[in-house]
Amino acid sequence: MNLITHFLIGWNTAVLAGVEKRDRVLITIAGVLPDIDGLGAIAEWATRNTEKPLRWFSDYHHQLAHNLTAGIIWALAVLLLAKKKASTALAALLAFHIHLLADVLGGRGPEGFQWPIPYLYPFSPASQITWQYQWPLDSWQNLAITVAMLAMVFIVAWKKGLSPLEVFSNKADELFVRTVQKYKRNG
Question: What is the reported pTM?
Answer without folding.
Answer: 0.90
